[in-house]
Design a protein that fits this description.
32% helix, three-stranded antiparallel sheet, alpha+beta, 13 strands, elongated
Length: 314
């Protein structure tokens, strides 16, 4: 009798083992799966079994939500991207009036800063965010089109420009070699003198805010602030007719090896065009953080709207 029982137990064990070899389990919900099931046949690049049909849809939804906030580190600065329009940039530009949400400066979409499984929790402080934004500096270039019809001009001097102690001798060199004559008795603030598409998108109120911190790269004067008083001039970084002794102006500025010393990669936002970047680093690559926004034009309108939307929050 004991032999019969032993044989039966052994047979049952063998049958169970043979059946279990054809079974596996979902990595998420532990549901038993057959090797013949579609879930078993779907594997990732490491050969790991993908989720079963019952929980797959739920997990995919969670994954997409988690991917909407990307933790990207570049130059040791936290960068995130908008889940709606995919605009990417440093954390400091995604401001919101609520501590628990972020707001995209391009599409104004707001989203929570905490994902469902707490894999990435972002705690914000309102005072810190405002302080961080006020410290953010935007780098733009001058424009070829300028205001020549204003009657509100005032007198000024080249020595009144920002960064005079560091850039005066380089400015004098460019002015002398280019042969440009400047009328310092008729000057306008830089943001009024330049009338390019970017400048037209920014409101006068935003230009005049005390928190607005914009550096303009001028082909004639190098770095200036948007409030500096300038006379009319005609000079660009990469125009054939503006070459000095057969060299483009951006090459001359690059040889001075001075413009890069004014840039902070952790605080500045680079909105420069490629010819102006070359004056700094002799390369088309960004010289600071970039918003990675998908601007629809190459003439500054998109950048101007994007910048104005940020300045509105100050």
């Amino acid at each position: 009798m004991e032999v019969i029982v032993y044989i039966l137990v052994t047979l049952i064990g063998l049958i169970y083992l043979s059946m279990s070899k054809n079974k596996t389990h979902c990595d998420n919900c532990k549901t038993e799966l057959s090797k013949k099931s579609n879930a078993y046949k779907r594997r990732n690049n490491k050969g790991k079994i993908i989720l079963c049909e019952e929980c797959e849809n739920e997990i995919i939804t969670k994954d997409k939500k988690e991917e909407s906030i990307q933790k990207i580190k570049k130059d040791n600065v936290l960068r995130i991207s908008c889940p709606k329009c995919t605009t990417e940039g440093p954390l400091s530009i995604f401001t919101s009036k609520y501590n628990s949400t972020l707001c995209c400066p391009m599409c104004e979409y707001e989203w929570s800063t905490t994902t469902s499984n707490n894999s990435f929790t972002l705690r914000t402080n309102k005072k810190y965010k405002m302080k961080n934004n006020m410290n953010t500096r935007f780098l733009i270039n001058c424009s070829g089109s300028k205001n020549t019809n204003s009657t509100n001009t005032v007198a000024s001097s080249i020595r009144n420009l920002s960064f005079d102690n560091k850039l005066y001798k380089y400015r004098k060199h460019i002015i002398k070699k280019s042969g440009i004559e400047l009328d310092w008795d008729n000057c306008l603030p830089a943001y009024e003198l330049y009338t390019g598409k970017l400048y037209k998108q920014i409101t006068t109120q935003n230009w005049n805010k005390s928190e607005t911190n914009i550096y303009i790269l001028s082909a004639l004067f190098g770095w200036i602030k948007h409030t500096d008083l300038l006379p009319y001039y005609d000079l660009s970084m990469n125009q054939q007719e503006h070459k000095i002794n057969g060299r483009y102006v951006n090459k001359i500025w690059y040889d001075f090896s001075i413009l890069h010393k004014f840039i902070s990669r952790s605080k500045d936002i680079d909105l420069l065009t490629q010819p102006y970047r070359k004056a700094i680093c002799n390369s088309k690559n960004p010289v600071a953080q970039t918003p990675y926004a998908k601007f629809k034009d190459n003439y500054g309108t998109g950048k101007g709207k994007w910048l104005n939307s940020l300045l509105d929050k100050y």
